Design the sequence.
């Protein structure tokens, strides 16, 4: 989840300060940007928080990347 959130932030052009402001205005979640940075780097947050972050950044849905199987490597 940590990598997904950081990727969405990068794609939407949000830094931790902007995301903290968006969470505050959209959901009333008061969080200092440094707290948010630590939380996102550790990855210790619930899926509910991930969804709130995506919605606060203007997302309407969570799109998970599609991985194709790579048959060129032998099975272990």
Sequence:
């Amino acid at each position: 989840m940590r990598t997904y959130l950081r990727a969405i932030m990068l794609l939407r052009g949000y830094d931790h300060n902007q995301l903290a402001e968006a969470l505050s205005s959209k959901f009333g979640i008061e969080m200092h940007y440094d707290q948010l940075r630590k939380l996102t780097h550790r990855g210790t947050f619930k899926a509910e928080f991930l969804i709130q972050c995506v919605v606060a950044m203007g997302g309407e849905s969570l799109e998970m990347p599609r991985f194709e199987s790579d048959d060129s490597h032998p099975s272990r």
Remarks:
- The chain has one domain: 2-56.
